[in-house]
Amino acid sequence: MTAGTATSSELLSVVASRELAGRRTVFAGIGLPTLAASLAHLTVAPRLEIVYESGVCGAHPSQLPETIADAVLITGAEAVLSMATLFGSVLQGGHIDVGFLGAAQIDRHGNLNSSVIGDWDRPKVRLPGSGGAMEVMANSGEVFVVMRRHDPRSFMAELDFCTSPGPDRALADGITPRGAGVTRVITDLGILARAGAGEELRLVAVHPGVTVDRVRAATGWDLQVADEVATVEPPTAAELRLLREDVDPGRVYLR
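RE: above sequence
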């Protein structure tokens, strides 16, 4: 098993999991964020506490959940809270280090769209919507986003709709944000990063064989680039084995 045999889902999950090194609590969305958090718990963050929107804290499910309401999430959990307690006390209480989300569109400041593609009244595609993503954005210390597709339709200068506004929009409305908003974006081309409000996302790393010019061409705004762009270490055989055999042997999310 080498990087050359890794699928896009495996690549994104492995690279995203490494970003959780040293973190203590993560609010994980279903899908790739769940894969990344589960793999991180087995590798770079053994003390990581995984929290889910349905109220499950310290999740240790016997198998990967297929939905946020999957009963398997409760098996082995350290606590199961009401959603009101989870959002009102855990999230709004500032107890989440990292919110881990996905989205259909993102802009240069890390604002997210997971509602509609196209015009609100006549959308080309209607998406699931916010769920708890807006609360996660507003109250987590920082937010990581994993994007399956890096192209100008997903990385847009102007979102079709802003579902989850970042701290820049909050400040513009006179609201002091709790956290830094989106600080990491992991894609199939590389990694974008920012420190917080007032900064744009910039390219800090590319996957092997990917050029800076290719990432710029795939981004719908004039992408800033770090002075030194790193090359991401490809998934190791050990990481791929854990992902395939321990984390998602049923290939619930791996494609």
